[in-house]
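Weekly puzzle thread! Below is a chain. First person to post its structure in token form gets bragging rights.
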Amino acid sequence: VDAGVSSEFFAGAGALGKIPVAGQLVKAVQRNFDASLGSGRISMFDGMAEAALKGGADEAELYRLGRLADTMLGAPDMRSLGQSPAQSQVEAAFIFFAPRYTRSVPGALAYAISKGATQQESIKILGKMMMGGILTYVTLAKAKGMSDDEITAGLNPASGKKFLSMHIGDNWYGLGGGFRAWMGFIGSAANKDNWDFDNWEEAVQQNPLVRFLRSRSSVTTGTLTDFLFGQTFLGEDISLAQFVDDPSKLWRYIKRRGEPLTMQAVMEAQGDWQDRLLSGALGFLGARTSPATPNERLTALGIDVQGLSSFEEWVAAQRGSPE
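Winning reply:
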């Protein structure tokens, strides 16, 4: 198991390490993260190898289990795919923000349709992870008081940011990770309403496949496509004229492109400092956070003002209103 490869996420924010005070903290966090990641991969391999040896696995099978452990924790061996270091550097600079991490999810699914002990362990891991995620979400949602309809919507991969997430205050919090992202993409692509566009230009820029690829693109390519399309992959308008009129928007855009993911969660969170602190802490632990839209905040405010207990009651009240 290749336990010495640094995390792509920290490596991609190397400029932070040059900041006098914050840089030392970033490097310390990076060392701890890399050590934990390496320890996890070794422990995973040891457990799978012990079970495989009892079943008579040979050396080749143990090698595949090692590659599975790397892949499951977001660090597949690119050399085994025949990829040169130069190609890896080009991909990281111009194609994907984190090429190995992006490949790890389809790689793990590929192991599930292979054979031998590697297939068995892959299916076991993916099954436990899926059931664990669902049970965790349902338990937290029930504790929050969400209705069965809201929970059902939250379990639907086609429900956008509601998938495995819950609305608390002015933000959405939920389970994160590559597997959740890929399931959300598949659910979005399978929803025919997401392919209904007014014109070809909108279809090219905002279809689920393009949006998913743009969300995984490198900083260089992502910035270029933002200006070519005139929008971010989230649909926010962007232009040079906009930045000239209001330089603060340029600064916010640069920060969003260059900040670590946890810091982005803090800066984009809605509400007071407690909400921002919660978003940052959950983002650091790997959860998914996103601010509520103005329409969602108005809906929540309407529910509170009218004394209703759920979104369904608010919808029913609106339908029964003469206005």
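Puzzle host: Confirmed. Bonus trivia for everyone else. Residues 1-7 have pLDDT under 50 and may be disordered.
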